[in-house]
Write a structure and sequence with these properties.
heterodimer; A: alpha/beta; five-stranded parallel sheet; 3 helices; 6 strands; about 25% helix; globular; B: alpha+beta; 5 helices; 11 strands
């Protein structure tokens, strides 16, 4: 599909469920790039971190993680997404499984939310993406 | 024109508080919007630029355009309520023009909804813009690079 020269989208809501984390670092940059791009195209974007994804919002993890050797750090991709207007939710039920306390989360996290919040978002948004 | 940390700033233009964009008033009262030297450096080699369709009403803070590089995607934010009048076709065809000369290459031309003076009131210009820009360069520890 060729790319349109002009942006003409209606405002949409998009939820990106981020299950990937340091165990699969190669999957950890693109979701934030895509989130930033969607937010720049007027979408209201939320990234919900769960499963191994919650390790990305633990202090000190994304700062030293890259998707590729010598590449831009994941925290930089995350901050680009935040600067574009993306909201970050961390999954409360996933935190204990990784020995993470809510106080250990990076400042970029907007909310620590239950699985029910994610379920509500999935049922009410326009698009859901899983990474 | 002055230079801080290798980054050029032009005091005759208007800037947002983050120095992401510059604005220039055209003779017909339209306003051209482009990326600053800081923004183009932070973005890297620009691969795609897309502008909101001409005629679109854009509230303050909503993007007038999106920019994509290999490692960065983000908005060109809109500093005031406006209607998009046109896009710079030369930039859409060859986005690297922004990396080569960010102040020569406007991205979108817009018409402010409010009177011009009111629309520009929240932006920085002149000596205040120069000082703020240099402070931003120092804070971000960024050395500007051109393509």
């Amino acid at each position: 599909m060729s790319q349109e020269r002009y942006l003409d989208h209606e405002a949409k809501t998009v939820v990106i469920v981020m299950t990937s984390g340091p165990a699969t670092r190669g999957r950890c940059a693109t979701p934030f790039y895509l989130g930033a791009l969607l937010a720049s195209m007027d979408a209201q974007v939320t990234i919900f971190f769960t499963m191994d994804g919650v390790r990305l919002v633990q202090n000190g993890v994304a700062e030293s993680l890259t998707a590729m050797e010598g590449g831009k750090t994941i925290i930089e991709f995350m901050r680009d997404a935040k600067a574009a207007g993306v909201k970050f939710h961390a999954c409360r039920p996933a935190l204990p499984g990784y020995d993470i306390e809510p106080v250990d989360l990076i400042a970029e996290v907007d909310e620590v939310s239950s699985g029910g919040v994610l379920a509500d978002m999935i049922l009410s948004c326009d698009k859901v993406l899983f990474f | 024109m002055s230079v801080c940390h290798g980054c050029e700033v032009r005091p005759e233009l208007y800037y947002d508080a983050e120095f992401q964009i510059w604005a220039r008033v055209e003779p017909d009262g339209a306003v051209s919007i482009g990326m600053t030297d800081l923004s183009q450096t932070r973005a890297g080699k620009i691969m795609h630029v897309r502008v909101r369709r001409p005629g679109s009403l854009r509230p303050r803070g909503k993007p007038v355009a999106t920019v994509e590089t290999g490692k960065w995607a983000g908005p060109v934010p809109n500093p005031f309520d406006c209607v998009i009048e046109s896009a710079n076709d030369a930039v859409l065809d060859d986005p690297l023009r922004i990396n080569r000369d960010p102040y020569a290459e406007w991205i979108a031309r817009v018409r402010p909804s409010a009177p011009l003076e009111q629309a520009l009131a929240g932006l920085l210009t002149g000596a205040a813009a120069e000082a703020g820009f240099c402070e931003r360069c120092r804070a971000d520890r960024l050395e500007c690079k051109r393509a």
